[in-house]
Automatic annotation (TrEMBL):
It comes from Alkalicoccobacillus plakortidis. It holds the Pfam family BPD_transp_1. Residues 46-227 form the ABC transmembrane type-1 domain. InterPro entries: ABC_transp_perm/SBD, MetI-like, MetI-like_sf. CDD domains: TM_PBP2 (cd06261). It is a multi-pass membrane protein. Its main location: membrane. The chain crosses the membrane at residues 6-28, 49-71, 96-120, 165-188, 208-230. This is ABC transporter permease. It is found in: Cell membrane; Membrane.
Length: 248
């Protein structure tokens, strides 16, 4: 284990211990009673939050991954700079400003919230996918050609497996960000656990606040751990370090 990996593991362990202690303290003070006393509302808000994240992330994947494949082909590589700049520009707009803009176009409710989250998800997925495809050793592709592989076989058997770690890292970043940002959907009537979070803030009620914020935190941690496991499971040995160096 390298020094950086050791530091990373220690920091993560300390953070998880602090989070666990915080949960124990807040539970002992009864801050989560609302989840059980009003469980029907909680399940509705939880489902809305999950749906916001799932739909916006799926749309981002549908747009970002094919776009990344397109701009990393030698014939169309000249379009990489403009697509990267457009994606970067969209990411620089504050999330609340995007929500306000969407109200004028799509009104209030679920649709504008999903669109705003979609915009924020595209860049991490696109950027990591581009870095992953660009990190593949050209000798691997040449070896594939030498073995008589067709371009589609080189893509699915060499490029996709060897860039999968970077692609999933982008998905982790985008989806975890989405879980937190989806709370802002409350401002435009998009529902989700932000309803309880901002009600708690407005009323100075820690019960409301933590009953909304803690499930959001647990959702983000759970998704992050699941995708981290998937990244390790699907990535060929030896491809992780080369890909990570390119992404960083």
């Amino acid at each position: 284990m390298s020094k950086n990996q050791l530091i990373n593991r220690i920091v993560k362990t300390v953070l998880y211990v602090l989070v666990a202690l915080f949960f124990i303290w807040t539970a002992a003070n009864g801050y989560y009673n609302r989840i059980f006393s009003d469980s029907e509302t909680f399940l509705i808000l939880f489902g809305q939050h999950l749906l916001l994240v799932a739909v916006s992330s799926l749309l981002a994947v549908i747009v970002a991954l094919p776009l990344a494949v397109f701009v990393t082909r030698p014939k169309y590589k000249k379009f990489e700079w403009i697509t990267s700049n457009v994606a970067n520009l969209a990411q620089t707009v504050p999330s609340l400003a995007v929500l306000a803009l969407m109200i004028g176009i799509l009104g209030i409710g679920f649709a504008p919230a999903v669109f705003a989250l979609f915009i924020y998800s595209v860049l991490p997925i696109f950027r990591n996918a581009v870095a992953g495809f660009n990190s593949i050793d050209s000798n691997l592709k040449d070896a594939g050609k030498g073995m008589g592989m067709k371009p589609s076989q080189i893509f699915w058997r060499i490029e996709v497996p060897n860039s999968s770690y970077a692609i999933i890292a982008g998905l982790r970043t985008a989806i975890v960000l989405n879980v937190g940002t989806a709370a802002l959907a409350y401002y435009i009537g998009g529902g989700g656990l932000g309803v309880w979070i901002f009600t708690g803030i407005n009323l100075f009620d820690n019960g409301f606040l933590l009953s909304g914020a803690v499930p959001v935190t647990l959702m983000a941690i759970g998704i992050d751990l699941l995708l981290a496991w998937m990244g390790r499971a699907v990535t060929p040995k030896g491809a992780k370090s080369a890909t990570l160096q390119t992404v960083e």
